[in-house]
# Entry
Amino acid sequence: MQQTDNKELIKFVEKMPAFPKSVQRVVQLTSNINAPAKEIVRVIESDPVMTVKILKVINSAFYGLPKKITSIQRAVVHMGLNTIKNLALSVAAMGVLKPTNQANFNTQDFLLHSLTTASICRLLAEKLNVKGSECSDFFVAGLIHDFGKIVFAEFDPDNFKLALEKSAEQNIPLHQAETEFMGINHAQVGKMLAEKWELDPVLIEAIEHHHDNSNEQRLTACIAIANQVSKKLQFGFSGNGVVEESPSEIMPYFEVTLDDLIISLGDLSAIKSEALSFINS
Amino acid sequence: MKFKFWGVRGSISTPGPATVKYGGNTTCIEIRTNNNELIILDAGTGIHPLGQELLKQLPVTAHIFITHTHWDHIQGLPFFSPIFIPGNNINIYGGLDPVTNEGIERALGVQLQYSYFPIREAELNAKIVYNTIKPEHSIVVAGATITPILLSHPVLNFGYRVDCDGQSIFFTGDYEPIFNIYEPDDSEYQEYQSFIDQKQQEIALAIKGVDALIIDSSYTTEEYTAKKGWGHGTYGSAIKIANAAQVKKLFFTHHEPTRTDNQLDKIYQQLIKKNPNLEYEIVLAKEGIDFFI
# Structure
């Protein structure tokens, strides 16, 4: 895409609504003065669009927070619940993301993939003994890593559809097909938006490199692996059927194969059912 | 530096015989530097009598810092007489609201509308300058360094640290110390608590060693149970912060609107009794008295 397209895309995403379930829950919860704060936080952090839009507002240089805010929980601690609640409500006021689109991209399956990747990413962080205060950053990275795809499905559905079809027919990674049809892939477009929105550089890097196999950053490595785990276990679907294992089949940081890692993580079905319960509640 | 409370009441002004001693105006604090330059913290109804006083000293240059834009902190602005007089310079400072994306001009603009007030903003004769400021970005005004710090309240709220003449004051605006939104057996509890601990340390550092901490202490600990999440602190939470920040003097303000003078006196006696070993003086904010630092 060209520079002018980027400007249009940024404008388009500004108006892009969030997922129907979270919009509905935000409206419900914000009409109840006694709604538990943790419920509101949970709803926001289960929606990649809502999460990214709130992070965007509070990280903007215009607003001027001295430190980047990387998760909704941190945002609540810094700004207070009511501000975050009202930001969520302003996102909800934009309407809801349609369940169907011209690209035939299934948004429910996408959401399930995003949510399970987020939870698995946090699990990997725990496995690496990441400091407790950083684990929610891993969750957020997992949640928003594929944000570019939902943008493609809405902004450029015809080409995205071609990319989805080619990826499925020829069993090639979706991001390669995207580059072929659109000249840019979802990781790059996600990075471009995250940069524009002045998100934390660590999150930007995780989005940009989540298909790379040799990530030096711990967060980026975890998100790349969590993505593959979620795909291998077929938790939802985000348009890419190809499970990319590193050439050596050895994961950075974990030093085992993907299969062995999955075994060592134990039963992950609870992650799927928890995500499903949110999507279908 | 010296300062004077012109409004000590929270939420709504409370004139009447039961509030004569401490005062019934909503929040306003006048700070005078050693050069007699004027800094005002918040513009509740207390800024009205302050404005009357200033009419004796025209022309006026005032720097008004708004902690947040709830009514009880801005309601006096349209009644601050110096804004109507040519030759006065009124500088208004405050944060950008992340929800509405409006700067501090909203504090006056929202009130000077046809339905609510007879005078339009364009008709104000003083020179009025709005300055939207950012958290933790200090600015130098009237020879004082003023640092806004984000403090938790149901709307964007800045606490202000004022450093001048080798002395310091911190005013919280309205502030409820953050509490954990999770239950101890929730998996998120510990992580969230670590965010809170970190934030509390940052706040203590921002307040560290001030000569005067003026803090929202609307409730008693007993009352707080029913008011959790409303955005205000308690006498107990104020003392906790003052201890952590090793302040030299602690002023309790934002008195609960139904609180009478007698009740405040009683609360004060209990606080003295309960906290015999404090290393600093505690004071109930009271309108009309100069406090010299």
